[in-house]
């Protein structure tokens, strides 16, 4: 690793000020992506601003139908939250299957979505749930937040503070994990709202990162059952192909995982 300056932020304002004062400063949350990248000498930030001690970025609250999760909340905390389990059980299931126990106790929801890895789990969950990403300066809808592979709407120095979700009527998540990394070879999150509208988001398969599957949304809005997806055809022209799976294989996985997610949602 290259030499870097370490800073422990005490508040959101402190963190933003510390990053703005560094030449190539980076926010550090769980460090599950940034630290390995630094060890490989693929990144060399001049300053690291540690967010793990910022109280305003931690915690989970459910108020009526609104779920608020602090950006520095770990995957394990989301997975084990009784409040979230009652309001949005699919999100608990998603968090419980990220990586291994070490990753789940260090990685955070804010770090995951800020990185927007094309095979990460949370982007699919937040996109399907129509979440709002709250930063130190504004609120961004999930539709506008995830802009491409490893790319988001965040501006330079902007910090995710929390995520807000309206509890769905039903939701479920299913993924086919890479056996080594546990990243999603393909993962699908399905959410049905009280008005009958449905959102389906896919991770691990898109050539440009997480995306919504409109045909499945239409089919499930009419009939929220796994059999409703039988007639849906998944186009593989914009799907990834790599050493793990061809685009055609991923297209099949999208359908299989979507059916499993609907079944899990009940």
Name its key features:
single chain; alpha+beta; Uridine Diphospho-n-acetylenolpyruvylglucosamine Reductase, domain 3; Enolase-like, domain 1; 5-stranded antiparallel sheet; 4-stranded antiparallel sheet; 11 helices; globular
Annotation, overall tally of beta strands: 14
Helix run count: 11
Question: Structural class from helices and strands?
Answer: alpha+beta
Shape: globular
Give the topology string: H per helix, E per strand. Answer: EHEHEEEHHHHHHEEHEEEEEEEHH
Spans of at least 5 consecutive residues whose pLDDT stays below 50 are none
**What is the helix fraction of residues, given as a range?**
25-40%
Q: Let me know the average pLDDT.
A: 96
Radius of gyration: 18 Å
CATH overall fold name of the largest domain? Uridine Diphospho-n-acetylenolpyruvylglucosamine Reductase, domain 3
Just name the CATH architecture of the largest domain: 2-Layer Sandwich
